[in-house]
Amino acid sequence: MAKHTSPGLSFLYHTAAGRFLLKGLTAPPVSRLVGRYLDSRLSRIHIAGFVRRNGIDLAGCEKQSFSSFNDCFTRTLRPDQRPVNMDPNALISPCDGLLSVFPIEPDRVFAVKGSRYTLSELLGGSEIAGQYGGGLCLIFRLCVGDYHRYCYMDWGAKGENHFLPGVLHTVRPIALASCPVFTQNCREYTVLNTEHFGPVTQIEVGALLVGRIQNHQGAGVFQKGQEKGLFLYGGSTVLLLLEPNRVRLLPELLAQCQAGQETSVRQGQTLGYAI
């Protein structure tokens, strides 16, 4: 999970010409056009380089031959590659990524790699933001080579998915230092009424040339470890909002987060236990 900055991103965010181009590149029609190309057979020419640059091991995938770039990007791993702790009291990571944890305080503005936003902004002004005061916000930043499918972290029942359109920007660190990324990106949130952690809101955030957050189901019941959805091409982010006194994070994980360090986690990994 390398954190190097690409010359392309540096040009887009740190030069006048790049910022001029950025507005056009992040327009929905452009994103949709690129998306169609990445879904086509023509895009297969990019797969070998993508796999090599990101150190991706395809041996753990259910298949090693892909019909398009996005088919590779959204590859499905064998179940043994992402084991899930099925202990009912274990809080698991819903995805691969770099994890940060923040306490939720009234009107708190969160800072993540220079980006500043409130829960109300993330949730499109929804009143549910208020119920998480005193709780925790877990932020999982997926890198481009990560597994871009995510799962449910407990058993329970969910409401409908709420989609909030936005202007797409990359979630890589260089972009986070330049604009309020999360409030400008498209995002989708769902209230999960879980059996062991109470009401949990999960937010998925799109990124540059993604915008396509694919959740598999609307309102209904779900199982722990069941796939909830996936992101198409690009770095993306998942957030979990938990009420106070619902979970006790693992001490080593909490210490790293309190030190301001992002912690590498994998889908299904234990993060803590229900209180």
Characterise this structure.
The protein is an alpha+beta fold. The chain folds into 2 domains: 7-73, no CATH class; 82-274, no CATH class. The chain has 9 helices and 17 strands. The protein has helices spanning 7-14, 16-25, 28-39, 47-53, 69-73, 119-122, 173-176, 181-184, 251-258; strands at 90-92, 97-103, 110-112, 115-117, 136-142, 149-151, 156-158, 162-164, 187-194, 199-205, 213-215, 220-222, 227-231, 236-242, 247-249, 263-265, 270-274. Strands 2, 5, 7, 8, 9, 10, 12, 14 and 16 form a 9-stranded antiparallel beta sheet that branches. It has a 3-stranded antiparallel beta sheet with strand order 1-17-15. Strand 9 and strand 10 form a beta hairpin. Helix 1 crosses helix 2. The longest helix has 12 residues, at 28-39. It is globular and about 50 Å long. It starts with 6 loop residues before the first helix and ends with a strand. The model has no long low-confidence stretch (mean pLDDT 85).
Any descriptors?
275 residues; alpha+beta; 2 domains; 3-stranded antiparallel beta sheet; 17 strands; 23% helix; 28% strand
Describe the structure concisely for a colleague.
The protein has 275 residues and is α+β, with helices and mostly antiparallel strands. It has helices at residues 7-14, 16-25, 28-39, 47-53, 69-73, 119-122, 173-176, 181-184, 251-258, and strands spanning 90-92, 97-103, 110-112, 115-117, 136-142, 149-151, 156-158, 162-164, 187-194, 199-205, 213-215, 220-222, 227-231, 236-242, 247-249, 263-265, 270-274. Strand 9 and strand 10 form a beta hairpin.
